[in-house]
Amino acid sequence: MIHFAEATPNLRNIAARRGRRLGRFPHFVASWPCAAIVRGVALSLFIALVPAGCGYTTDRNAQFKTVNANKDPIRTVCLDIMGSREFRRDLELQLTEALAKRIEAESPFKLAKKQFADTILTGEVKEVRQGTLGRDFKEVRPRETAATLIVSFQWKDLRTGEVLVDHPRFVQTVDYIRPVGEDFYHAMQRACDRMAERIVEELESDNW
Asked: Which of 53, 97, 98, 207 is deepest in the core (most CB within 10 A)?
C-alpha cells in the first residue's frame, strides 16, 4: 500500500517535469498537491456556508409562528367547516377540504379535534362574483370571465383566546375561458385551492 506521504515526492517530480516542458516555473508547479488540498478545503467550506448565507432552510418550523404570546408551543389546529352566505352550495366544503390538505402538506401543524387542539381556524364564504373580461363579438357572448371568491377567516389560540390572524375580507380572483371548455365550476375549484394556499401563507410568522 502506498501512503500519501510516500507518493508526494514522485508527484512533485512529475509536476515539475511537466512544468518545465510548458515553460513554467517548476518550484510553483511542484507544490500543486498542497495547493490542491487547500483549494479542496476552501471549496468544502464555501459549499457548507452558501445555504446559510442565502437564508435557505428546509425547516418548516422556521417559516411559521409556532408559539403564542405566552411562548406556549402551537402544534395542532382545529379546522372548522367554513360557513357560507352564498346561495351556491358546497363552495365552503371545497374550501375546507383544500385548506385541510394545505395545512397537512405545507405547515408544521397537525389537524385535531377541538377538544385536543391548541388553536382553531374558522372562516366564511362571504361572496362570489363574476365579471366579463372579454366578449366574442361574432356570437355576442362572454369569452373570458373573472370569478372572484371573497372570504373571512380567523385563527385563534383556544388556550388563551389570543387572536393570531384575523382577515375580515380576503379576496381571490381567477379567470376562465368558456370557448375552450372551462366553466364556473372549474374556476371555483382553482379559486378555492389558491385561496387555501394563501390562507396557509398567512399563518407564517412574518405575517403576524
From this structure: 98
Residue-range domain boundaries for the chain: 4-53, 60-207
Helix (H) / strand (E) containing 120: strand 119-136
In the CATH scheme, what is the code of domain 60-207? 3.40.50.10610
Residue 67 confidence class, pLDDT cut points 50, 70, 90: confident
Residue 103 CA, chain-centre distance (Å), reads 11
- Give tens-digit pLDDT for 3-46: 444 444 454 554 455 444 444 444 434 444 555 554 555 555 54
Bridge pairing between strands 141-157 and 119-136: antiparallel
Copy the grid coordinates of residue 114.
377541538
For residue 42, what are the β-bridge partners? none
